[in-house]
Amino acid sequence: MEIKTLCLGLLCAGDASGYDLKKQFESTFKHFYPACYGSIYPSLADLSKRGLVTFQEMPQDKKPDRKVYRITGEGREAFRAALHEADPHHKLRSEYLVAMY
Question: How many domains does the chain have?
Answer without folding.
Answer: 1
